[in-house]
Write a structure and sequence with these properties.
CATH architecture of one domain: 3-Layer(aba) Sandwich
Distance between the termini: 76 Å
Largest sheet: 6 strands, mixed
Shape: globular
Number of helices: 18
Strand content: 5-15%
Radius of gyration: 27 Å
Number of strands: 8
Structural class: alpha/beta
Order of helices and strands: HEHEHEHHEHEEHHHHEEHHHHHHHH
Strand order of the largest sheet: 3-2-1-4-6-5
Helix content: 40-55%
CATH topology of one domain: Rossmann fold
Length: 480
């Protein structure tokens, strides 16, 4: 490892999650670099952690403390380790997508969260390093024993090695991958971490890490491993507390069951289970009949459901703020200022609702104040299409018809986008497109038209005329 570090001037980027594998790798690298003479420690080692903003509070606190200790220890020991806490762009956070845009909770066939919240922030940082230095070496704690999929991936990397221990990264040009513990087992990791004290955390730091894992195990035990049949607490895994990719969040369940002091996290588990229950019930009643594009698409004759409806998005916002308020009230002292959702996220959600979804009644500040009992901390902007008074008039004109209200607001906004142009080329086409997406009396009417269009694709010219006539007649009364 020391020889590899000194071979060139390429900076290293080490991925650190706070778990046992990344802890072992960072500890190995730290020990190796500390063993070099000061004049040989020339190039930086960037230690990056991606905070998705929905990490388990216990793990997030642990990682933040690790970064703080790491920074102070590196400065004291004269080592080139530079910790970085990365976060997703505000427009791509979990709550902005789920509450703002209405994305349904993630599932295996629609796993929209990982790339936006974890992969993109890391890749953005690595690209910046490559841009400045021409190349980067990624040091990862990946191991073949983690899963059959990980074993296959690491084997492929091994076969394509261009230098000793280094494999090209197919997804990030000019970056190489270094996996120093790829052949270690879970037990190898624990034996090393428990026998060698943390160079940045002190004598008990790694023991506290094992306690964290043990608390997330169903039997609250990390047994002494004597043979391959003995289970290891290395199977405990931590992730986002909102994750619906698994049937149950066993780690959080175990934390709450094993430690009375962690019962304050129960509201988080309950909210996560609500998200999961809705997702597994296929949430037809929660989601719009139109896709995000505004069009109705069919699968086996049934509409493919789109984003959450306005009522459901408001429901999730209210539930999240209620959970945050409860944690601040009933949690331990260090949870009194917990932020399950940041003000910047609330502002982005508010912008999406008003600007992209044309929901000019601006309900977010009202919901915030009703749930928290505190005034919303940002003033209302004035440069919007409709103020609350004008929108109230529009609601009155539409007589409570949400479909008509949404259509009218969309048409007004389309007109506004073109009004400042010297030549308003395309405005009629844009208005027609809006009518085509939203010009339905009811959701049933929208689905009926989509089914008729599907039948028209395979019909003869004469049949198409008959179908078109039927479509027009079927919806004429509702439109009138």
């Amino acid at each position: 490892m020391q020889a590899l570090y000194q071979e060139d001037s390429t900076p290293w980027v080490l991925g650190f999650s706070g778990g046992k594998d990344s802890t072992a790798v960072l500890q190995l690298v730290w020990t190796a670099i500390r063993g070099l003479p000061p004049e040989a420690r020339k190039k930086p080692i960037h230690v990056i952690t991606t905070d998705t903003l929905v990490e388990s509070p216990i793990v997030a606190r642990w990682v933040a403390a690790s970064h703080d200790r790491m920074k102070r220890a590196a400065e004291a020991q004269g080592l080139p380790f530079v910790p970085h806490m990365l976060t997703p762009e505000i427009s791509q956070t979990f709550w902005v997508n789920l509450i703002g845009r209405g994305y349904p909770a993630p599932r295996p066939m629609f796993r929209w969260c990982t790339e936006r919240m974890k992969i993109n922030p890391s890749n953005r940082f690595i690209r910046d390093v490559v841009k400045k230095s021409g190349e980067a070496i990624l040091v990862l704690g990946s191991r073949k024993a983690e899963s059959s999929r990980r074993h296959a991936a690491l084997t492929r990397h091994e076969e394509r090695r261009v230098r000793d221990h280094l494999s090209p990264n197919s997804k990030l040009p000019n970056s190489l991958i270094y996996t120093p513990i790829e052949d270690w087992t879970n037990d190898d990791v624990w034996l090393y971490v428990m026998q060698v004290k943390s160079p940045w955390g002190g004598d008990d730091w790694n023991r506290d890490l094992m306690t964290l894992y043990r608390g997330a195990s169903a039997d609250n035990e990390c047994p002494l491993v004597v043979d391959t049949s003995t289970p290891s607490c290395g199977n405990s895994r931590f992730g986002c507390w909102v994750c619906t990719m698994v049937e149950r969040d066993r780690s959080m369940e175990a934390m709450i069951a094993n430690d009375d002091e962690k019962e304050w996290m129960l509201p988080l588990l309950e909210l996560r289970n609500q998200l999961d229950d809705v997702q597994r019930e296929k949430d037809e009643g929660w989601r719009e009949v139109r896709r995000m594009s505004g069009r109705v698409e069919l699968f086996n004759g049934e509409p493919i459901r789109g984003p959450y409806t306005r009522d459901r998005r408001e429901h999730w916002l209210r539930a999240l703020l209620q959970t945050q308020t409860q944690l601040r009230r009933d949690g331990p002292p260090d949870a009194r200022e917990i932020e399950l959702i940041r003000l910047a996220e609330l502002e982005e959600i508010r912008r999406i609702w008003r600007v992209e979804k044309h929901e000019f009644h601006d309900s977010l500040p009202r919901i915030y104040e009703e749930v928290t009992g505190a005034p919303y901390p940002r003033a209302t902007e004035t440069d919007e299409l409709l103020g609350s008074d004008e929108f109230a008039v529009l609601e009155e004109v539409c007589e409570g018809d949400e479909t008509l209200l949404s259509l009218t607001a969309s048409l007004l906004d389309t007109e506004r986008r073109y009004r400042s142009m010297a030549r308003r080329v395309g405005v009629l086409k844009a208005l027609e497109d809006t009518l085509d997406k939203r010009g339905f009396a009811t959701d049933e009417d929208a689905v009926r038209r989509a089914k008729a269009r599907e039948r028209m694709r395979g019909a003869s010219s004469v049949d198409q005329l008959d179908l078109l006539s039927a479509m027009t007649g079927a919806s004429a009364e509702g439109e009138a």
